[in-house]
Each structure stands twice: as C-alpha cells, then as structure tokens.
Amino acid sequence: MKKLADFFFTKLQRISSKEWDEISVVIVNNIQSQEINKIHLQHDYPTDVITYTLPPFPGEDTFSGEIIVNVEYAFDHFKKSFTFQKELALYIAHGFDHLSGANDASEIEYNRMRRRELRWLSEAQKLNLL
To answer: How many domains does the chain contain in total?
Structure first.
C-alpha cells in the first residue's frame, strides 16, 4: 500500500499547483465514513473517499493532506471488472486526484477525473504496485 500511495503522491506533485509535504491515507469502515461525512460535509451516509487539504503551518509553504478511504464501501462496490484491491486503489487515486484540486461535481469533471485515475491505475499495475 505504501508504494502505491507513493506512486499516487508523485502523480499529485506533477499536476498540483501546491507544494505537498505529506499525505496521510486513513482506512475506515462504513460507520466511521458516515460519521465523518456527516460531521464535516453534512451528508448522512457512508461514502467512498473524503479528502482534506491542510494549510501550511505558519512560516512554511508546504501543504499536507488526508485521504479517508472506506474499505467496507470498496468491498461492497467492486465490480466484476475490478478486484477488491483495484477498487480500493481507485479510491486512493481518487483522493489524490481531489487533493490536486480536481472536482467531480459535474459529469464532465467526473469523467475527466475517472480517465486520469484509470490511467494511473494502469501505470501502477504495469509497475506491479497493484
């Protein structure tokens, strides 16, 4: 998992206008995801990924981020074309993509993000990171 996260971190650094220091990937279940989603985004349901960009500390110019990935949601939603591991990797890629500033609020933006994330997964698979 660490090598895969490092790979996505490299992708983030290439497309982001921010300078990143570190990214935490936190694995949660449906109950925890729903609680975080409700508290921070006012959505009362579990979700696949929640991301946060943390501002630099005073006097510093690098950002940190947190990607909260719902492992139970990944297990419940992986499709026949994806393994559970690939679904989970997709969620992690999606979190890194969000940290870059990408937004999936519209269908066009969602499709753009999904194409990029699938490309990243394909590259990661070729490097035996999945």
So the answer is: 1
